Amino acid sequence: SAVISQKPSRDICQRGTSLTIQCQVDSQVTMMFWYRQQPGQSLTLIATANQGSEATYESGFVIDKFPISRPNLTFSTLTVSNMSPEDSSIYLCSVVRDPETQYFGPGTRLLVL
Amino acid sequence: AQSVSQHNHHVILSEAASLELGCNYSYGGTVNLFWYVQYPGQHLQLLLKYFSGDPLVKGIKGFEAEFIKSKFSFNLRKPSVQWSDTAEYFCAVKKWGFQKLVFGTGTRLLVSP
C-alpha cells in the first residue's frame, strides 16, 4: 500500500478565490492522480500528474481551472481556481502501487460559499 | 465510453445477514476490477481486486467477489455482515494496461445491530 497525506483536510472558501491542495506520498511514485467526489456522487478523475511533464486532463477539466504541479516524485499540488459553489467537493489524490492498484489519500473536503 | 453501474444505492441489513452488492461494467476488453470501501470518517481503502486467474477473489474482512466475464459483472459478497461493515462501497474498473479508474456511483450499506 502507500502512506498518502493531504493538506488541508478541509476548508471553507469564498467564491472567486483559489485553494491549493497538497498531496505527499511516503515514497517515490511515477504517476499521481487527482479525483473529485461531488456531494452524493462517485469519484471522477480530474487529471494524471507525471513528474517532469504536463498533467493530462480528463474531458471536462481544464488546466486554467485546475492547475497541477508535480515538482518531484513524492509531491503534487492541485489548485482549484476562481472557485464557485459548484466546486464544493472532496478532492482526493491517489498513487499506483503493487502493481497497477491505486491507493488514495484521505481527501480534502472543500466548501465554497 | 467505459461505465460502471452499481444498482443498489442504499442497502440496510441486520447483523449476520448475507450481503451481495452488484457491479456491472460496460467495457468489452480485458479489465482489472476493484472494490473499495469508505468507512465513516475514514478514507477510501482497497477491499479486493481482480486481475486474472481464479474469478473468485477474497479480500479483507471476509469479503469476496466473483468476476463473471459473460455478464460483465463483479459482485461483492459477504456471508454474514457485522455492524462494523457499515460503510460506502465503490466498484471500480480500469482497462488492462491503463491506469484510469472508472468508479461506480457507490452503495451505502447500513448494518443495524
Distance between the termini of chain B: 41 Å
Query: Portion of residues in helices of chain A?
Result: under 10%
Main interface: chain pair and counts: A-B, 21 and 21 residues
* SSE pattern of chain B: EEEEEEEEEEEE
Question: What is the typical, i.e. mean, pLDDT of chain A?
Answer: 93
Kindly report the average pLDDT value of chain B: 93
Structural class assignment of chain A: mainly beta
Query: Which of globular, elongated, flat, extended, rod-shaped describes the shape of chain A?
Result: globular
Determine the N-to-C terminus distance of chain A.
36 Å
DSSP helical segment count of chain B:
0
Order of helices and strands of chain A: EEEEEEEEEEE
How many E strands of chain A? 11
What would you note in describing this structure?
The complex is a heterodimer of chains A (113) and B (113). Chain A has 113 residues and is an all-beta fold. Helices cover 0% and strands 54% of the residues of chain A. Chain A is built from no helices and 11 strands. In chain A, the strands form 2 sheets. In chain A, strands 2, 4, 5, 6, 9, 10 and 11 form a 7-stranded mixed sheet that branches. In chain A, a hairpin with a 3-residue loop joins strand 9 and strand 10. Chain A is globular. Chain A starts with a strand and ends with a strand. The model of chain A has no long low-confidence stretch (mean pLDDT 93). Chain B has 113 residues and is an all-beta fold. In chain B, 0% of the residues lie in helices and 50% in strands. Chain B is built from no helices and 12 strands. Chain B has strands at residues 4-5, 10-14, 19-21, 24-25, 31-38, 45-50, 56-58, 64-68, 73-78, 87-95, 102-103, 107-112. In chain B, the strands form 3 sheets. In chain B, strands 2, 5, 6, 10, 11 and 12 form a 6-stranded mixed sheet that branches. Chain B is globular. The mean pLDDT of chain B is 93. Chain A binds chain B through residues 1, 31, 33, 41-45, 48, 58, 92, 94, 96, 100-107, and chain B through 32, 34, 36, 42-46, 49, 51, 90, 92, 94, 99-106.
